[in-house]
Write a structure and sequence with these properties.
Protein name: VOC family protein
Number of helices: 2
Strand order of the largest sheet: 1-4-3-2
Distance between the termini: 25 Å
Helix content: 10-25%
Mean pLDDT: 91
Domain VOC: 1-120
Structural class: alpha/beta
Low-confidence stretches: none
Length: 121
């Protein structure tokens, strides 16, 4: 059995995507090659950014999956992150709303990949 789960997000430019995600997450990559960069999100969890797997990813193509950042702190924390990301010019796909499990919002990275911010279970 594996001891780590890596969520892979396909991107056009791994270094550019790493700068975007690093700024949002407030962290530096834990592993870097020109086409594959990871962030250590804690014990057993990594975020991988992989380029060169698809030609010309377009933000216009709908995505059916998303990276979910589960945060502590409740609605005030989620609102604060939303305002911070909005001020950075991050594309917001859906503003904060109650989805039954708590306040959440959805943003997109420059390649159109969805990023949800939601409360930690």
């Amino acid at each position: 059995m594996t001891t780590s789960v890596v969520s892979i997000v396909y991107v056009n430019d791994a270094p550019a995507a790493a700068r975007f995600y690093g700024d949002l997450l407030g962290m530096r990559p834990s592993f870097e090659t020109p086409g594959y960069i990871t962030f250590d999100l804690g014990p057993g969890a990594d975020l991988g950014l992989w380029s060169g797997q698809f030609e010309d990813l377009s933000p216009d193509v709908p995505r059916t999956g998303e990276v979910c950042l589960a945060v502590d702190g409740g609605p005030d924390e989620i609102d604060a992150i939303f305002e911070q990301w909005k001020s950075k010019g991050v594309t917001i796909l859906r503003e904060p709303h109650d989805a039954g499990f708590g306040l959440t919002f959805v943003a997109a990275d420059p390649d159109g990949n969805r990023i949800r911010v939601a409360p930690k279970d």
